């Protein structure tokens, strides 16, 4: 199970985080995902891909936790924090969950130095010049790494046409 | 008008590219949006792996003990 977690733990966590929007609840969902997967492993068809199976479990577990939190929030609506996952939108669709899983998988496959540039650019919203400053490297290096990283992502995710 | 590989990648990487069609732009912008979302980057607690392994080990031990009692 340790090896399975190392391969799929971050992906399951990303799915749970997408549904729940809360780190603690996403960790709870990830734990339940792997426990449920371990319980069901004996009956797993060996020809079935492990990743999509785990993504399905992670989504279902996260939605169960979401519903539990929703009920809890309904009881304490006046005291719930504005960002409470139970107060925001409905759980993500299976299609959205698949996208989350695929993007996370593709990002995880990038070399660390490219992954960091993509994270700084998209998640932190930094320009190439700001990234160069932050990482103490040349702007040209940032640009070439960024281009390579996005090329890999596009190829991996089917966003490139021949 | 259809953009070439380099233009599509450049747009994805955040550069201003005029040659993209609306459909191409929308498709690539969807990926850009995904890359800016927290779930793409959020990391679980490094201790989570050990917690999961411990819970499963505990359950496995309980299962073994239970099957011995039923023999």
Percent of residues of chain B in beta strands? under 5%
* Portion of residues within helices of chain B: 55-70%
Sheet having the most strands of chain B = none
Number of strands of chain A: 0
List low-confidence stretches of chain A.
none
Principal-axes geometry of chain A comes out as: globular
Q: Based on DSSP secondary structure assignment, what is the total number of beta strands of chain B? A: 0
Class computed from helices, strands and strand pairing of chain B: mainly alpha
H/E series of chain B:
HHHH
Radius of gyration of chain A: 19 Å
Strand content of chain A: under 5%
**Class from helix and strand fractions of chain A:** mainly alpha
Terminus-to-terminus distance of chain A:
40 Å
What would you note in describing this structure?
- The complex is a heterodimer of chains A (162) and B (71).
- Chain A is mainly alpha-helical and 162 residues long.
- Helices cover 72% and strands 0% of the residues of chain A.
- Chain A is built from seven helices and no strands.
- The relative contact order of chain A is 0.11.
- The model of chain A has no long low-confidence stretch (mean pLDDT 86).
- Chain B has four helices and no strands.
- Chain B has helices spanning 5-12, 22-35, 38-41, 48-69.
- The longest helix of chain B has 22 residues, at 48-69.
- Chain B is 68% helix and 0% strand.
- By secondary structure, chain B is mainly alpha-helical.
- The model of chain B has no long low-confidence stretch (mean pLDDT 86).
- The A-B interface holds A 1-2, 5-6, 9-10, 13-15, 17-18, 23, 26-27, 30-31, 34-35, 38-39, 99-100, 103-104, 107, 118-119, 121-123, 125, 128, 143, 146-147, 149-151, 153-154, 157, 159-161 and B 5, 8-10, 12-14, 27-28, 31-32, 34-45, 48-49, 51-53, 55-56, 59.
């Amino acid at each position: 199970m340790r090896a399975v977690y190392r391969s799929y733990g971050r992906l399951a966590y990303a799915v749970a985080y997408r549904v729940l929007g809360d780190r603690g609840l996403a960790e709870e969902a990830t734990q339940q995902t792997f426990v449920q997967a371990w319980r069901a492993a004996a009956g797993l068809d060996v020809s079935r891909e492990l990743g999509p199976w785990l993504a399905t479990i992670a989504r279902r577990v996260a939605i169960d936790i979401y519903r539990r939190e929703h009920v809890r929030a309904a009881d304490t609506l006046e005291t719930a924090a504005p960002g409470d996952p139970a107060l925001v939108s409905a759980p993500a669709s299976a299609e959205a969950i698949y996208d989350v899983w695929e993007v996370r998988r593709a990002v995880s496959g990038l070399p660390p130095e490219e992954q960091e540039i993509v994270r700084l650019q998209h998640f932190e919203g930094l320009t190439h010049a700001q990234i160069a400053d932050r990482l103490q490297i040349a702007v040209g290096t940032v640009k070439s790494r960024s281009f390579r990283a996005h090329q890999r992502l596009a190829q991996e995710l089917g966003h490139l046409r021949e | 008008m259809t953009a070439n590989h380099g233009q599509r990648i450049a747009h994805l990487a955040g550069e201003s590219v005029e040659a993209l069609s609306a459909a191409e732009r929308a498709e690539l912008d969807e990926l850009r949006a995904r890359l800016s979302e927290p779930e793409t980057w959020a990391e679980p607690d490094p201790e989570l792996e050990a917690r999961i392994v411990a819970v499963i080990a505990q359950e496995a031990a309980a299962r073994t003990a239970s099957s011995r009692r039923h023999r």
